[in-house]
Design goal:
Structural class: alpha/beta
Strand content: 15-25%
Largest sheet: 8 strands, parallel
Bound molecules: pyridoxal-5'-phosphate
Number of helices: 9
């Protein structure tokens, strides 16, 4: 099995090449290492190799890793999976960034925790039943609510297109997210995963969420 540093070098080269093609600076794109279903040792390996931003999908799973993960100085942890209101308190304690805010109710709950949190609004751009997120026509209202909450700092928008091995199929979704963010004057775009990060960077992504290409295939516990 390839070592983490070798996988990271390949991902870094892909990001760098996409930035060159898009005429963008490498510094404008953050690599978020997605560690769901991997043990805390995977986070520690990635940290040792220089990764500082991490994404987890499940509050409970990250809670178990948190004592060791939190010891990684200046690492930041993003929740990228759907968040139910009843888990918002725990999520607000464990994570620095919540990328999946999709209702005003959830935003208010997070605000009530009294701890500053960076947030993204997750936008549902596909018709798939299984996808979470705020409908695009409701994003402006939600952004307005979040901007009025003193503990939340609205950073940008996040989306997940329907999975398709052909990365070009993601492009219209990324383009649409970028237009929505521009209309709301939001700087950050969380879009692009292992298979479509190049297309996402070409369409303006500022944060790519990469799991498989860094850690290999996930095996559900
Ligand atoms: C799992 C996950 C990723 C990473 O996907 P890969 O294809 O393994 O890179 C990115 N974003 C979200 C929201 C995820 O759930």
């Amino acid at each position: 099995m390839p070592r983490f540093v070798d996988r990271l070098a390949i991902v870094e080269a892909r990001i760098a090449a996409a930035c060159v093609r898009a005429g963008r600076s490498r510094h404008d794109v953050t690599l978020l290492a997605v560690t769901k279903f991997f043990p805390v040792e995977a986070l520690e390996d990635a940290y040792a190799a220089g990764v500082r931003e991490f994404g987890e999908n499940y509050v409970q799973e990250f809670e178990a890793k948190a004592p060791r993960a939190r010891a990684l100085e200046d690492a930041r942890f993003h929740l990228i999976g759907p968040l139910q209101s009843n888990k918002s308190r725990k999520a607000g304690e464990l994570f620095d960034v919540i990328q999946t805010v999709d209702t005003a109710k959830l935003a208010r709950r997070l605000n009530e925790l009294g701890r500053p949190l960076d947030v993204f609004l997750e936008v549902k751009l596909s018709e798939e039943e299984s996808k979470h997120g705020c409908p695009p026509e409701a994003v402006a209202d939600l952004a307005h609510v979040v901007r009025g909450l003193e503990n939340l700092r609205l950073r940008g928008l996040m989306t997940m297109p329907p999975w398709d091995e052909n990365a070009e199929r993601s492009r219209p979704y990324f383009r649409r997210l970028r237009a929505l963010a521009a209309a709301l004057d939001l700087a950050e775009l969380s879009m692009g995963m292992s298979h479509d990060l190049e297309v996402a960077i070409e369409e303006g992504s500022t944060l790519v969420r990469v799991g498989t290409a860094l850690f290999g295939d996930r095996h559900k516990a």
